[in-house]
Amino acid sequence: MPDARPIRVLIAKPGLDGHDRGAKVVARALRDAGMEVIYTGIRQTPEMIAEAALQEDVDVVGLSILSGAHLELFPRVVRALKERGVDPDQILLFAGGIIPDEDIPALKELGFREVFRPGASTQDIIAYVRQWAAARGLVPAAAGPARPVHRRGEGSLRADFDVYLNTIRNVHHSAPYRERIDSRTSLT
Question: What gap in Å lies between CA 148 and CA 129, rounded to an integer?
Answer without folding.
Answer: 22
